[in-house]
Amino acid sequence: MVPVARQFFSQEIDRSDEQIDLAKAALYIAQEEYPDLDPAEYLNALDTMAEELLERLPIQRYPLRVIHTINQYLYEDLGFKGNVNEYHDPRNSFLNDAIERRTGIPITLSLIYLELAKRVDFPMVGVGMPGHFLIRPDIPEMEIFVDAFNRGEVLFPQDCQAKLSQIYGQPVALRAEFLRSVTHRQFLARMLTNLKYIYLQQQDLEKALGTVEKILLLFPDIPGETRDRGLINYQLGHWFSAISDFESYLAQAPHAEDAPVIRKLLSQLGRG
Predict the structure, then answer these.
(1) Distance CA 163, CA 250 (A)
(2) What's the pTM?
(3) Of 107, 114, 161, 177, which is most buried by a Cβ count within 10 Å?
């Protein structure tokens, strides 16, 4: 039986990308973990925070001044911070927990920042840099980035280059696509992918399966996610679902490097 929260999530993303309400969709993801969660409570919390922020904004809203004011409010006044010590705690990936606990990982803190900025008419967008999610003002020709995980640190492209090299422990060439803004669906998929790997590390296969299923609601044609759903179904003993996923994967990616492994698993299940 499909959880009610999954149905709400599916309805929210069943619209044009720019019309998807990121905060609502993120709260529906959380609601699957916390069935008693009331999304309106946290949407109201964001509204209240935005009202308080509005009172602090300068009359002349130069972008860097606005960013400085948001940073002062979020990190100094409210005490939000990146969760460095418990980075892989799944609670860091749920918007309700990030709001309540005032801590999270880059993407959840970025979401709070984006939602506040939207509410005070300072539009920003997510930036899917590998290894570390960023945001930036949605202003043409303005190449500054904000690291919501690190107290709203303002970065220029060369700073992003240095951060990438630091994350991967070796020099990494900065490519234009690393600093490209993400769509709402891509944002949610990245949030879910974080959760997916946390659950897989914890061997919580049922929850990992739920995250993959939601990723596939966002992007039905990603072969790797179909394969992963099949592998999780296989481990859970959901044989018919695993067979269906493996066959779909091979139809989508017949020449993939791992295709022989998947064919072998299909053979073990009496197919192929």
Answers:
(1) 38
(2) 0.95
(3) 107
